[in-house]
Each structure stands twice: as C-alpha cells, then as structure tokens.
C-alpha cells in the first residue's frame, strides 16, 4: 500500500477548485434559492428583437452553457468532496471497494472517487 501525501493532493485540489470556480463564474451564478446549486447565466432572449438570428445564436449559447455548467458543477462538487475527505481522513479510498485508490490514479485525477475498475459516468 502506497502512502498518500494528502498535503500534496490538497494543494492540487485547491488549485483545481480555483480554476473550476472561475470557469463556473464565467458562465453561471449561484442559484439564489439554493446556494448549493449553480445555474447558467440567463441570456437576453427577447423575442421582439429585430434580428432573429441574434436571438437564435443567444439561445444556442445558453443551451450549450447548460451542459457546460452541469459538467463544471460535477467537477466542483467532486473537488469539494475530495477536500472534505482529506479533512475527514478518508481521502484516497475507493467508494465501491473501500480499498486505497492507487496514487497514480490520484495524480491523474485528484478528485477521483473510485479506483479505475469502478469508474462512474461522472468521472
């Protein structure tokens, strides 16, 4: 069993969290009715706008942001969970088997929740 340098991974996760948060803030905002949820920044989709192509382009961009926000929010939550596991002393443990996740896997994906044999759709 390899020793996991949690300080090293904490630093990596905090740096990654900063980037993901900045990315999220560029396309989303915290939902005012649920502070644990991010929502895409609404576009001006005024149907009275003279240029229907502009309205269509804005709608397309908004739809793309919905998918992007979902992916970024998943990353954000996985990073936050990994940081909490470091605090709790449970970082690097596969959620499926309870075995240690290989350090090489954590280096590649510091917020990994499982070993490679049990990858889920969110990873």
Describe this structure in words.
This protein is mainly alpha-helical. It has three helices and two strands; from the N terminus they run H-E-E-H-H. It is elongated and about 65 Å long. The two termini are 23 Å apart.
Q: Strand arrangement, largest sheet?
A: 1-2
Largest sheet geometry: 2 strands, antiparallel
> Helix share of residues?
40-55%
Which shape, going by the Cα principal axes?
Answer: elongated
The count of helical stretches stands at: 3
> pLDDT under 50 segments (min length 5)?
none
N- to C-terminal separation?
A: 23 Å
Query: Order of SSEs, N→C?
Result: HEEHH
Percent range for β-strand residues: 5-15%
pLDDT average, as an integer? 86
Radius of gyration: 19 Å
Tally of strands: 2
Q: Assign the structural class, choosing from mainly alpha, mainly beta, alpha/beta, alpha+beta, or little secondary structure.
A: mainly alpha
How do you describe this structure in short?
With 123 residues, the chain is mainly alpha-helical.
Keyphrases for this structure?
123 residues, mainly alpha, two-stranded antiparallel sheet, elongated
Topology (elements, then pairings):
Blueprint: H1 6-27, E1 28-31, E2 34-40, H2 52-88, H3 103-108
Antiparallel strand pairs: 1-2
Helix pairs in contact: 1-2
């Amino acid at each position: 069993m390899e020793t996991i340098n949690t300080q090293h991974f904490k630093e990596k996760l905090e740096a990654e969290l900063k980037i993901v948060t900045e990315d999220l803030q560029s396309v989303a905002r915290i939902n005012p009715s649920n502070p644990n949820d991010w929502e895409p920044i609404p576009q001006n989709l005024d149907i009275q706008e003279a240029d229907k192509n502009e309205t269509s382009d804005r709608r397309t961009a908004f739809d793309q942001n919905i998918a992007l926000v979902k992916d970024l929010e998943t990353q954000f939550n996985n990073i936050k969970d990994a940081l909490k596991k470091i605090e709790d002393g449970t970082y690097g443990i596969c959620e499926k088997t309870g075995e240690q996740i290989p350090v090489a896997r954590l280096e590649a994906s510091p917020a990994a929740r499982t070993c490679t044999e049990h990858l889920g759709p969110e990873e």
